[in-house]
Design goal:
The chain is an alpha/beta fold. It folds into three domains: 3-86, Arc Repressor Mutant, subunit A (Orthogonal Bundle); 91-159 and 270-288, Periplasmic binding protein-like II (D-Maltodextrin-Binding Protein, domain 2); 161-266, 3-Layer(aba) Sandwich (D-Maltodextrin-Binding Protein, domain 2). The chain contains nine helices and twelve strands. It has helices at residues 3-15, 18-25, 29-43, 59-86, 106-116, 129-138, 200-212, 226-234, 279-288, and strands spanning 48-50, 55-57, 91-97, 120-126, 143-146, 155-170, 181-182, 190-194, 218-223, 240-243, 254-260, 265-273. The strands form three sheets. Strands 3, 4, 5, 6, 7, 10, 11 and 12 form an eight-stranded mixed β-sheet that branches. The protein has a two-stranded antiparallel sheet with strand order 1-2. The model has no long low-confidence stretch (mean pLDDT 88).
Amino acid sequence: MDLRHLNYFLVLAEELHFGRAAERLHISQPPLSRMIKQVENELGVLLFERTKRRVILTSAGVELLQDAKQMVLQMETVKKRLAIHGKGETGALKIGYVGAVMHSGLPALLSAFAKNFPHIHLQFEEQPNTNLLHGLNNGTLDVAFVRTWLHPETLQEKLILNEPFVAVVPAKHSLARKNKIAIKELKNETFITFTRECGPTIFDSFLALCSNAGFTPHVLHHASQLNSVLRLVESGFGISLLPANIESGYKLKLKFIPLENARETVPLIMLTRKENSNPALSHLQCHLVK
């Protein structure tokens, strides 16, 4: 007995009339009668009592009715779930990232993706750049987000967005009253910045901004953590140039000032294997890469 047999049985059980049931099933009455007879022979019981005036369910038919409804419902659920899976709209995505990407537009983009694809489970893992590359290459990660162009031979990189730099100064700094600032105005300032090992692209862009403005920055301290950079700036040890979105993540006594005519930006980059069979990944790529 297959799903088609169950469906014929259910329609006849609802109509209790061979003619009306056959009409609903878009078949003639004789094939329906033969199909029901086959089911009864297979089960070894009568499912319907037939007279010239009416058709009624036997006790065995009543018992099968409940089971048949459940089986058809389960099968429909399986079909829907498999259809979603075939479209890549279910499953899991293992996402790696460096901590700096959380201070960008990425969390909001991933949140919107999760709402659009509620059956795709997102798994997150924070790691340094080298670990992310290793995870992508050995298949333990599907995608990774970084803030530095790494140019790995076996992976592909896609730019998600670019962010402008802002000057980060203590709230009581003389420049804190300005709405915009030119890089050349920072010539005599002391800087707190990331180490190049932690953020090569940010560090190199920072140097390029200063060089294009005609000076070499005096760097007091190279920190490995964003919180260290911000706390040192807040405490008056220097200023910093950082991606604009960092402002929304902290409530410190700092002023974030847009820069005038600053061409350097900070990238957010998505890394994936060139060959990845996870169908959910294509949906994420389409969602993020416009």
